From TrEMBL:
This is Uncharacterized protein. It comes from the Eukaryota. It comes from Symbiodinium natans.
Length: 90
């Protein structure tokens, strides 16, 4: 069995395609770990053309996301004044 370096969930980007929701579709790249007690795990970010088109992909915390169970994957819009968008690296 061979291993490919740099291919783990914390080293590569995830390409998401959502039919009829093209503004949510795109490349989500690993940004760090979610330290929240209930929704730990990797956090990914998609740079949009504007902050309104930029989203976080992370595990849900049911106390914050009422329509989701703990651990479900959610896309969350960037919150102006609260979130710091990671720098875009080409």
């Amino acid at each position: 069995m061979e291993r490919y370096t740099g291919c783990g969930e914390r080293h590569s980007c995830i390409e998401i395609h959502l039919q009829n929701f093209h503004y949510l579709s795109g490349k989500y790249c690993f940004q760090g770990e979610n330290a929240a007690r209930r929704s730990q795990g990797p956090v990914y970010f998609k740079h949009g053309m504007t902050p309104q088109e930029s989203f976080w992909l992370m595990r849900a915390d049911a106390s914050r996301h009422q329509l989701c169970d703990d651990g479900d994957w959610v896309l969350q819009r960037v919150e102006a004044g609260k979130d710091r968008c990671p720098p875009l690296i080409s």
